[in-house]
Design goal:
Blueprint lengths: L4 H15 L5 H25 L6 E5 L5 H10 L6 E7 H8 L9 H9 E9 L12 E8 L10
Helix pairs in contact: 1-2, 3-5
Length: about 150
């Protein structure tokens, strides 16, 4: 596939494959593996055909696949400059957590190593029909530019 749509289509297919796993751990593992392979190949194509392209990602991520998708976006090799996602509030708290707080986790470290996270908006459960049991939040993850940790991986 040629042009600017290649990366977007690939990402959409990966999100579709992961969402189709329905929380099945083994299915999610296979879908993440497939997407990692495809994104790696796509990253090389995008870099070659569209040098300087710095895409943005915007998504509403299901709870059970949030971490695999974010890891794919952080480490997939695509030159993504910003990720804006709606996630469960609990996940947003982890992405934004400071050291020595209850929400601080490996996800916090990985997120803050790769991005500058910012809470954009808390979205109360009442905003949805039917309302879920938990609140959501929109989070903006701005990639470090230049990467302050380049060469340390």
């Amino acid at each position: 596939m040629k042009g600017r749509c290649a990366g977007a289509l690939l990402l959409a297919l990966c999100l579709f494959a992961l969402a189709g796993c329905g929380g099945n751990a083994k299915g999610t593992e296979y879908a993440v593996y497939y997407c990692n392979q495809a994104v790696g190949e796509e990253a090389a194509l995008v870099a070659e055909k569209l040098p300087g392209l710095r895409p943005m990602v915007c998504a509403n991520l299901p709870y059970n696949i949030t971490t695999p998708i974010l890891e794919l976006l952080w480490d997939g090799g695509l030159p993504i400059r910003q990720i804006s996602v709606m996630v469960q509030k609990e996940v947003a708290d982890k992405l934004l957590a400071a050291p020595s707080t209850p929400a601080y986790s490996l996800t916090s470290v990985r997120c803050q190593y790769r991005t500058i996270p910012q809470l954009v908006q808390v979205v109360p459960a009442e905003c949805f029909t039917p309302p879920p049991k938990v609140d959501s939040a929109v989070v903006r993850l701005q990639r470090h530019r230049p990467d302050p940790f380049a060469g340390l991986d």
